[in-house]
Give the backbone structure.
Amino acid sequence: QVQLVESGGGLAQTGGSLRLSCAASGRTFRTYSMGWFRQAPGKEREFVASITWSVDTTNYADSVKGRFTISRDNTKNTMYLQMNSLKPEDTAVYYCAARILSPDYNYWGQGTQVTVSS
């Protein structure tokens, strides 16, 4: 069973920064493709960023390109999302997810709240 636990959310001001972490269980973490998603109140969950297991490919939503950076440390079974130049529209619950032997993300964390004040 894979478990994902996010941390690092909180309150930031416009233009500020936060770093989210996602700690994963499982001995084969390094084989997971992983991603970050977010869901704002009243909106559907949306893709934010993804990273392959080998760390050679990353993808970002247009809305966060140039501001957010996804990374992972396979020795620590942890994925990160560095969020800079935060905007009020970044306010959402952020979820980490893993894609294991599946074309879709099939494991999800519980989410961490990010609130950006104007």
Summary: The chain has a mean pLDDT of 92. The longest strand covers residues 92-99. The radius of gyration is 13 Å.
